[in-house]
Structure formats: C-alpha cells, structure tokens
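Reviewers of the previous submission asked for a worked example of the structure-prediction workflow described in the proposal, so we include one complete record here. The input consisted solely of the amino acid sequence. No template or homolog information was supplied to the procedure at any stage.
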Amino acid sequence: MTATRICMVRHGETDWNVEQRIQGHIDVALNATGVAQAAATAAGLTAHRFHAAYSSDLGRAWQTAQAIGSGLRLAVQRAPGLRERHYGILQGLTTAEVAVRYPDTYARYLARDPDHNFRTGESLAAFSARIVAVVEAMAADHRGQSLLLVSHGGVLDICYRRATGRALSAPRNFGIPNAALNWFEVGPDGWRLLAWADRGHLERSLDESAE
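From that input alone, the workflow returned the following structure tokens.
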C-alpha cells in the first residue's frame, strides 16, 4: 500500500460560525458546543489508529485537535500550512456586512473568483496551491500510513475539490459540518475521496456557512 489514508476534521463550532462571521486567520476560540463536539469526535475516533496527527495552529483548530489527541493518546503537531484562507478585508465581518460595505468584492466572493484576494488576503488559487502542497507533502512523509488532520472549512473545500475533480470556481454543492469526519487517500495515483461529512458521532453540528 503506497497511498496515505487521511481523516480530516473541521474544528468545532465557534460563536463566529453561528453569527456567519468570516474568521480567516483571526483567532477565535470554540464555544461550548464546539468543545462538546471536539470531545465527541475524540470518542468517535477511538476505534481508529493514526500514525501521526497535525493541526492548524489557529486556536479553534488547535483546541479541537488537543481534545482529540488527548482522547486518543496521540501527540499533535502544529502545522501552520493547514490554516484557513486569509480573507483580507472581509475578516471579522459577517457576510451581511460584507454585502453592504464591499458589494463588488462580495460579488467576487460569491462567484468564487480564483484570482481575487480581497485586497490584502489570499486568492483562492494561491490558497488551493498552499493546501494541496502541504497535504501532499504530509502524505509523502507518511506513505502507507494513516494521518489525522484538524483544519478548517475552506481547507476541506479544497480537499474535496481536489479529490473529486470539482473546479475551484464551481458552486459548492456539499456540506462541511463542524467536527465531522472526512476520509480520503493521497498517493502516487492522486487523491481519492473515501467518505465525507460523517456526523454519526455528533448530536449536533453546524454546517458551514462562514469560513
């Protein structure tokens, strides 16, 4: 077996998720629901064995990863490359506020313009290149093993598209729930989606509405 099996988990819920406020690189802690989701994810993964675990260094992901790692007795390594996309001038605003303050930028946000970087942020194309490079490097370093990665909604969006061939600019037609389990393989033959948005271990999970 040469492919690396990866379980990627989106961080637990934050208050900004509930408010539909764009987080990007801003550090936001889990709310009470998110803390419970992280604990439930740890319990839901006890039957699985991972050779290594990596997490975005942003607080909401790191907090989720630490809860999972503690439950699985698995050390987690910080991986800044797994950070969410930088949304530039949109960070800290709700999607409703963006629509009013920056209508032209909001239109490009909705259109998933791959080259627009929200003035001070990261373009979708650059973000995708970053995430693909990081995940493929981890897969190469752990060829034939199983990895646990804890990250963000935008990162999972990129991984889903890479594994299914869906274009970056295509509308999203799949959910990215907080703390759900998403499984795929990465190897010499490319990416392959195994399972998506498994929430069987959660009593409640908020589907993605704002990154």
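The chain has a mean pLDDT of 95. We consider this example representative of the routine output the project will generate in years two and three.
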